[in-house]
Amino acid sequence: MIIRPITRNDKAQWLPLWKAYQAFYKVTMADAVTDQTWERFFEELVPINAFVAEEKGAILGFVHYIFHYSTWTQGPYVYLQDLFTSEAARGKGVGRGLIEAVYETAEKAGASRVYWLTHETNETAIGLYEKVADRSGFIQFRKNF
Questions:
Q1: Is residue 67 part of a domain?
Q2: 3-state secondary structure (DSSP) of residue 11
Q3: Mean pLDDT, to the nearest integer, of 23-37?
Q4: How confident is the model at residue 47 (pLDDT cuts 50, 70, 90)?
Q5: For the chain, what percent of residues have pLDDT higher than 90?
Q6: Mutual orientation of helices 11-24 and 31-40 as an angle, nearest 10°?
Q7: CATH of the domain at 104
Q8: Which of 63, 85, 104, 131 could serve as a FRET partner for 6 with CA atoms 20 to 30 Å apart?
Q9: How many beta carbons lie within 10 A of that of residue 113, not counting itself?
Q10: Within its chain, how far is the Cα of 102 from the centroid?
């Protein structure tokens, strides 16, 4: 398995995983949002990035991550926004490999922190996350518009 930056040639394999990710969280995004998200990966001035995990030409999973500044540190933070692997790839180190690729990229860029959220019922993911990161103790609040 290799972890590499996403390329435009990956869309046909990324898209079904992206749709499965949405189904997992019981959300549906408009095609326009999906199209815009895809394009943002390749816009130089947009700090949204993606890696894919690939084995024998098949994409097994993806991670999307965003650089942003903080009022608490000199270095930027990296928000790991989306992480998903195909069901067949789970338990094989794909998720951990994708997280570690983000860690490496963040460290090279001088980031102070990588952080993410998951749903409290996502026990499988939480099991992995507790091995690779610390719980912050913070609770998220939000207001959608």
A1: yes
A2: helix
A3: 95
A4: very high
A5: 82
A6: 130
A7: 3.40.630.30
A8: 131
A9: 15
A10: 8
pLDDT at residue 101 greater than cutoff 90 = yes
Please write the tens of the pLDDT for every residue from 133-144.
Answer: 998 888 888 888
What residue type is assigned to position 34 of the chain? T
Q: Within 10 A of 124 (CB to CB), how many other CB atoms are there?
A: 11
16 domain-assigned: yes
Residue 100: which region, alpha, beta or left (left: phi > 0; alpha: psi -120 to 50)? Answer: alpha
pLDDT at res. 48: 97
Q: Number of structural domains, the chain? A: 1
CB atoms inside a 10 Å sphere around CB 6 = 21
Residue 41 lies in a domain: yes
Pairing of strands 77-85, 113-115: parallel
Looking at residues 52-80, what average pLDDT do you find? 96
In the 8-state DSSP scheme, what is residue 27?
-
Which secondary-structure segment (H or E) carries 102? helix 94-108
Under DSSP, is residue 75 helix (H, G, I), strand (E, B) or coil? Answer: coil
Q: What is the pLDDT of residue 29?
A: 94
Residue 137 resides in a domain: no
Give the range of the structural domain holding residue 21, as residue numbers without chain letter. Answer: 2-132
Q: How far apart are CA 104 and CA 134, in angstroms?
A: 17
